[in-house]
Design brief:
The complex is a heterodimer of chains A (114) and B (112).
Chain A: E1 4-6, E2 10-13, E3 19-25, E4 31-38, E5 42-49, E6 56-57, E7 64-70, E8 73-78, E9 87-94, E10 104-105, E11 109-113
Chain B: E1 3-6, E2 11-14, E3 19-21, E4 23-26, E5 32-38, E6 44-50, E7 56-59, E8 62-65, E9 75-77, E10 86-93, E11 101-102, E12 106-111
Parallel strand pairs in B: 2-12
Antiparallel strand pairs in B: 1-4, 3-9, 5-6, 5-10, 7-8, 8-9, 10-11, 10-12
Classes of the chains: A mainly beta (114), B mainly beta (112).
Amino acid sequence: DVKVTQSSRYLVKRTGEKVFLECVQDMDHENMFWYRQDPGLGLRLIYFSYDVKMKEKGDIPEGYSVSREKKERFSLILESASTNQTSMYLCASSLSGGAIQPQHFGDGTRLSIL
Amino acid sequence: GNSVTQMEGPVTLSEEAFLTINCTYTATGYPSLFWYVQYPGEGLQLLLKATKADDKGSNKGFEATYRKETTSFHLEKGSVQVSDSAVYFCALRAGGGNKLTFGTGTQLKVEL
């Protein structure tokens, strides 16, 4: 089974801090994604990566950056955390290829910015 | 742009009742369509998918048919169980790449 592991289930940080959310997948997937999930808004894509050192902006990249130095790891960075970034963050990965490849999700990190 | 509209929840049903969760979409071209499920405290899991018009996706007693003429992909189950209580997300993938556009999710509560 594919395993997508997010480093923390719950995280509390302060406004202005630099925050790192880590995600690791164990199935050699090319694609990795970061979403945030908010009530009434569903999942919104922040950034994704289709290869090492490659990244593309999603729908709501403002205030975030990402890093993919190794294929299995995709980090989300909040450069200067703000209270409106309090949310549930979900990481996902998938294979590339012509066939429809499902995205596999981690269990999420619930981040609170005080 | 692409968008997915789901019925608002929560939907509350008694065990063994029939379930329908409506999903309609707007997309360019011919999207692939998905239903994901999120159980409490967990991430999302793929429930079923359909890649072209008139395809029927099915899994765990759930079904959804890709209706191009009505741009819909409604989720159905004939007899729900308490263990089906979760949040259900409709999603589409259009064009190249593997980006998904999600609906807002519909919470299902099944009671004894």
